[in-house]
Amino acid sequence: MDNKKIVCLGGGIGTANLIKGLKKHYKNITVVVAMTDDGGSAGRLRRFYRIPPPGDLVSCIASMSNEDKIMKDLLTFRFPGDRYGADGDLPGHKFGNLMLVALTAVMGDFGKAVSEMQRIFKVTGRIFPSSSESVSIWALTSTGQKVEREENIDLGRFTGKIEKLYLRPENPSAPKEVVDAILDADVVIGGPGDLYTTVLPVLLVPDIIKAINKSKAKKIFIVNVANKSFETPSYEIKDFVAAIVKHCKSNVFDYFLVNSNTKPKIPQKFSRQYDYVKSDNAKTGSDIKIVKQDLVDEKFPIYHDSDKLAKALTEII
User: Fold this and answer.
1) Which residues neighbour 178 within 8 Å (Cβ) at sequence distance 6 or greater?
2) Helices then strands (H, E): number in the chain?
3) What DSSP designation does 190 have?
4) How does residue 271 score in pLDDT terms, banded at 50, 70 and 90?
5) DSSP one-letter code for 220
6) Given 3-state DSSP classes, what are the helix, strand and coil percentages for the chain, each rounded to the nearest 5?
7) How confident is the model at residue 288 (pLDDT cuts 50, 70, 90)?
8) Using CA of residue 172, residue 84, residue 235, residue 317, what is the dihedral sign?
9) What domains lie within the chain, and their CATH numbers?
């Protein structure tokens, strides 16, 4: 088991999938989770109980847990019903989200509750929120529309293409542990995950981007297997690079890891919403190293295969 210090930035399904594979190779993993979620179960609990969104933190806890499978399944169990239902209703909630809300009430502090939940579920590594403040996002589109809330961006409730993403407040602080972990890291990994609703909301936290720029770590960005048609429509590698440069003032990543296997057919259910990110002729006009490998989960080809992804990363690291 390698002892290199790795920091993963994001927190959504992509990050949960990533760390599931990484923890088989590395024991010193820190995950920094975006705190801008305001949709589904997490958003409902955020509004109803006035706490930070628990959903992505819980997903990462489940992925990094060393408890029995039944305990991890319990964390991610979702009560039947509409996840976008009324804020005070039980249906559609994830059990782990409710548990984190309960732990927050018992301990009187959200951060302490997150730490305690990691202890209870025997987590490998550490998981932190990107900010301890209440943070939201909004975006400007190519049609001049101002799109409020993560849920509206995530569900494509806007016209045109996303041009720029913003945090509210503009300058939330990051926990000291997050900054220290990045400065001390051997490797910093961005993504995979929704660019505008998962990855950039972490990179836009001023303390975090400053720490990344100062860090001597090897910095790797994992490009999504597939584009969401309304969030990153027809994006190529150069478009991901351009979005990072626009929001971070420079490209902060040394490597871009890209899936090269687009043979598996995207299920018809998702084919209108997702399309493969093309890796052919990937040119960015910079000194970025582009690494192409077969990374796709052939059973569910809009995501990475955890083990393939972890193996590709070990070769770069």
Assistant:
1) 30, 32, 128, 130, 207, 208, 211
2) 13, 12
3) E
4) confident
5) E
6) 40, 20, 40
7) confident
8) positive
9) 1-35+170-317 (3.40.50.10680), 37-129 (no CATH)
